[in-house]
């Protein structure tokens, strides 16, 4: 199995409810290592740039406002098949469709306020990690 890295974001609905530790425990219990992590407050411009791929979607404005509404925790998770494993641990985007035991099933409030983001493929993982972290900040 390939060791991979993926970008994870603990979103404002979760930081507001003090859920960072509980969410990190889910990652660590699944064998994912948190090899970089910082708590930051995104500007509307930064949120817009990060989610540029969704620019034409009807929920884009709402999504950017939400992501800039309170601090987020951005992190790099490392492990065997980390991208797929993280998506498994997060559960479906819409918490109504998420499996029991997943982060979104347990903590998400709605499809928009869904507690976590995770990269969906190796190319996007590399881009998203570079968006928030320099090489010097990544210590495996
Ligand atoms: P995320 O994995 O961060 O990637 C894009 C985000 O857009 C997604 O999680 C959801 O939080 C959000 N999103 C997707 N669909 C909707 C929707 N119908 N309404 C509001 N937000 C949405």
Automatic annotation (TrEMBL):
Span of domain Nucleoside diphosphate kinase-like: 3-140
Record-linked InterPro entries: NDK-like_dom, NDK-like_dom_sf, Nucleoside_diP_kinase, Nucleoside_diP_kinase_AS
Active site residues of this protein: 117
Annotated GO MF terms: nucleoside diphosphate kinase activity
Compartments, record wording: Cytoplasm
UniProt-listed PROSITE patterns: NDPK, NDPK_LIKE
Entry-linked Pfam families: NDK
Reported cofactor(s): Mg(2+)
Reactions performed catalytically: a ribonucleoside 5'-diphosphate + ATP = a ribonucleoside 5'-triphosphate + ADP; a 2'-deoxyribonucleoside 5'-diphosphate + ATP = a 2'-deoxyribonucleoside 5'-triphosphate + ADP
UniProt entry tagged with the keyword Transferase: yes
Enzyme Commission number(s): 2.7.4.6
Keywords: ATP-binding, Cytoplasm, Kinase, Magnesium, Metal-binding, Nucleotide metabolism, Nucleotide-binding, Phosphoprotein, Transferase
Function: Major role in the synthesis of nucleoside triphosphates other than ATP. The ATP gamma phosphate is transferred to the NDP beta phosphate via a ping-pong mechanism, using a phosphorylated active-site intermediate.
Subunit details: Homotetramer.
Family under the similarity heading: Belongs to the NDK family.
UniProt-recorded name of the protein: Nucleoside diphosphate kinase
């Amino acid at each position: 199995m390939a060791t991979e890295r993926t970008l994870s974001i603990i979103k404002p609905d979760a930081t507001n409810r003090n859920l960072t530790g509980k969410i990190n425990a889910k990652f660590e219990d699944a064998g994912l290592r948190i090899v970089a992590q910082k708590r930051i407050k995104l500007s509307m411009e930064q949120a817009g740039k990060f989610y540029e791929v969704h620019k034409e979607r009807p929920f884009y404005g709402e999504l950017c406002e939400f992501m800039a509404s309170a601090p987020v925790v951005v992190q790099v998770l490392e492990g065997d098949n980390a991208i797929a494993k993280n998506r498994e641990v997060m559960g479906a985007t819409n918490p109504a469709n998420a499996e029991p035991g997943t982060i979104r099933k347990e903590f998400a409030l709605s499809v928009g306020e869904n507690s976590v983001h995770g990269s969906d493929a190796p190319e996007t993982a590399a881009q998203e990690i570079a968006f928030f972290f320099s090489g010097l900040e990544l210590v495996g």
